[in-house]
Write a structure and sequence with these properties.
By secondary structure, this protein is α+β, with helices and mostly antiparallel strands. It has helices spanning 35-38, 71-75, 79-95, 108-122, 126-129, 170-179, 184-211, 216-223, 291-296, 351-361, 368-379, and strands at residues 68-70, 98-102, 141-144, 158-164, 228-235, 247-250, 256-261, 267-271, 274-277, 285-289, 306-308, 316-323, 330-331, 349-350. 31% of the residues lie in helices and 17% in strands. Bound molecules: the ligand C=C1C[C@]23C[C@H]1CC[C@H]2[C@]1(C)CCC[C@@](C)(C(=O)O)[C@H]1[C@@H]3C(=O)O, 2-oxoglutaric acid and fe (ii) ion (FE2). Residues 250, 252, 257, 306 line the site of fe (ii) ion (FE2).
């Protein structure tokens, strides 16, 4: 990423972030970055240098021990397997919201193709990638470190995001319409990959339903018509990995994330005040609870802070499928999760409102849901 041409920029703080800015001189105009060159430079632009309290520290190499959940055992219907799996998952979700799934049923060739297509896409020239440029306020398209979106604490990554829903061939058509017939293969691979992710998410929703005592179909039915986001994360090498972050500390605003990281590693989770690493396991998917599911569980399951660090030697990649409900479905915990002992923690909301909040008004961090609840009260008189 090297300074190429001026683009517009957006002020960091917004009326909703609670960090009202007094009149400040406009920051210098930001530039478009091209990963090919900046990844070799020692003097990285100041916009990529994160505050001291966020910088990665070497002591985060300690592993976060995560249970390897055997999904096939749960789906077998064997009562003991179902009970064991749902208990292990429930304990993890109450603690930090992360676990890993094996025997997930996702075809290994499809997974390999998804990684190969990601390599091909991000090795294209910036000009070619910008044919899928993500527009301000939109959640789909190509972004190079969000230069047009944030003015500081820029993530050291390029991303390609696109939506998945039940409408037939929606991913396949996205690639065809956005990038043309030469990308038919990409569209086919990611259409099948997203279908596999959606199936996996619905099966995991059965586990979560059993673990919270509302039955296999409780949450599965809620997400049957999901309108989700697929995100390809591409982290070029960085000569100052101690100064920047691939993805900054955040909680996913979505419902459930199914992540497959490549062999490089870099995913870290904040638990008990310490950053701990989740090492890559090619046969497993990392699964984490997002803010929307934390609200659906009435705060029982945790959406936790995590981040991605980079390194000097190797490009790192991750495939992240973000399960989201239909846009206008009301996010409200099932009755069985609300009682005198467990009063409502968050107000009713729709995913479309939370998505708009994260795309247009607030940069997802560790208090997105609280800030969102405040924004809802300020902007929607029914609250
Ligand atoms: C709804 C979303 C917004 C982000 C992509 C999905 C779920 C995770 C969100 C994100 C990764 C959280 C950290 C900040 C962010 C800006 C990023 O680094 O990409 C977030 C995504 C986004 O707003 O594009
Ligand atoms: O790349 C990773 O390992 C994590 C990325 C992430 O947390 C995200 O995209 O929400
Ligand atoms: Fe995340």
């Amino acid at each position: 990423m090297v300074l190429l041409m001026p683009t517009c920029f957006k002020p960091e703080a917004s009326p909703c972030s609670g960090e009202q800015t007094k009149q400040q001189p406009p920051p210098p105009p930001l530039m478009v970055f091209d990963a090919n060159i900046l990844s070799q430079k020692l003097d990285i632009p100041s916009q990529f240098i994160w505050p001291e309290e966020d910088k990665p520290t070497p002591d985060a190499c300690e592993e976060l021990p995560l249970p390897l959940v055997d999904l096939k055992a749960f789906l077998s219907g064997d009562p003991k397997s179902m009970s064991d799996v749902s208990r292990i998952v429930g304990e993890s979700c109450e603690r930090h919201g992360f676990f890993q799934v094996i025997n997930h049923g996702v075809d290994s060739d499809l997974l390999a193709d998804a990684h190969l297509c990601m390599d091909s896409f991000f090795s294209m020239s910036l000009k070619e990638k910008q044919r899928a440029q993500r527009l301000p306020g939109e959640s789909c398209g190509y972004a190079s470190s969000f230069t047009g979106r944030f003015s500081s604490k820029l993530p050291w990554k390029e991303t390609l995001s696109f939506r998945f829903s039940r409408s037939p061939n929606v991913v396949h058509d996205y690639f065809l319409l956005t990038l043309g017939h030469d990308f038919r293969h990409f569209g086919d691979v990611y259409q099948r990959y997203c279908e596999a992710m959606s199936k996996l998410c619905l099966e995991i929703m059965e586990v979560l339903g059993v673990s919270l005592g509302i039955g296999r179909k409780g949450f599965r039915d809620f997400f049957e018509g999901n309108d989700s986001i697929m995100r390809l994360n591409y982290y070029p090498p960085c000569q100052r990995p101690d100064q920047t972050l691939g993805t900054g500390p955040h909680c996913d605003p979505t419902s459930l994330t199914i992540l497959h990281q490549d062999h490089v590693g870099g995913l870290q989770v904040l638990t008990e005040g310490k950053w701990r690493t989740i090492s890559p396991n090619p046969n497993a998917f990392v699964v984490n609870i997002g803010d929307t599911f934390m609200a659906l569980s009435n705060g029982r399951y945790k959406s936790c802070l995590h981040r991605a660090v980079v390194n000097t030697e190797e490009t790192r990649k991750s495939l992240a499928f973000f399960l989201c409900p239909e846009m206008e479905k009301i996010v409200r915990p099932p009755c069985g999760l609300v009682d005198e002992e467990h009063p409502r923690v968050y107000p009713d909301f729709t995913w479309s409102a939370l998505l708009e909040f994260t795309q247009k008004h607030y940069r997802a961090d560790t208090k997105t849901l609280d800030a969102f609840a405040e924004w809802l009260m300020k902007t929607h008189d029914q609250y």
